[in-house]
């Protein structure tokens, strides 16, 4: 199996060189727009590409307002800030995620509650969330969701669309309505992924995208905050800059600003990448179907898009039969120059989140021991 898989990957990428997990492609106007930015001298916080890029993402996702930021983590941080998460508040999220989800919480002084995932698409499990809340939370007279044992307020649910596969949003939205919680979608991995026809990141109060170098499209580093309400979008734009009141020469700032604004240079790259996104996604889908066919009928289960969703197949993944099979595959492929990777270690194993509240995490542990990501860069663009 290992050798056949290695030949398949070498076939897909037509190379005998090292094959990374996810590399960007710049086959459109990237160079031209970057050159234009440099000759205009507007490389920094002012320039037309930031607005253009925001409008492109707005149109593409259908969100009310998109605000460009320096990276995905800062988009999440801003979302939490605007959702009124304060120090000491609790937020329900996944233990199986990239650390950025929890870092954003950490820097708010808020704490995660790790709830289990489901084992088909590896996103936050609505049943596990509902059960945990029923057993551990109460609504007080002001309608606030209180964690009974600590007396702390639970403010939000922050699911992550793992590898680009949408979580079950309708179910999570009902839970949020019942318990008076904000839904914040970590959509960093899911640009181009839809839940029942709606773009991921646009159903919650806020959604955060990432344009890091390994994501579906890249701006070098960058992120985008998707706001469901126009007024949140305006506020987001205000605080992600310096919260300065418009004036030709006076400097007056009416609240603390983050200065998380994306530079024009990065946005230029983003505009060129958005022109290529359909080609990129088509190539990724084609690669996914080759993996799916390869693993069909084997004891390795290819992770397919949910029936209720359309996935971008950001990172292709398989579930190995057990940890020994996983380790053997990682060892063999990586030693042969074909990069594969286990999933992130669960968040509660990291020192900064070791004492965080958590529910039963048996599905997360099951996935942690078996998931492997396969090379997924777009090709032939
Ligand atoms: C990539 C990613 C982020 C954001 O990453 P940045 O590097 O800050 O852009 C956040 N959450 C998840 C799950 C991610 O994969």
Automatic annotation (TrEMBL):
Under InterPro entries, the record lists:
DegT/StrS_aminotransferase, LegC-like, PyrdxlP-dep_Trfase, PyrdxlP-dep_Trfase_major, PyrdxlP-dep_Trfase_small
Catalytic positions are: 215
Record-linked CDD domains: AHBA_syn (cd00616)
Q: Which residues carry this modification: N6-(pyridoxal phosphate)lysine?
A: 215
Return one Gene Ontology term, BP aspect. polysaccharide biosynthetic process
- Molecular function GO terms recorded: pyridoxal phosphate binding; transaminase activity
Q: Specify the domain of life of the species encoding this protein.
A: Bacteria
Keywords linked to the UniProt accession: Aminotransferase, Pyridoxal phosphate, Transferase
Stated family: Belongs to the DegT/DnrJ/EryC1 family.
Q: What's the protein called, per UniProt? A: LegC family aminotransferase
Organism, per UniProt? Alkalimarinus sediminis
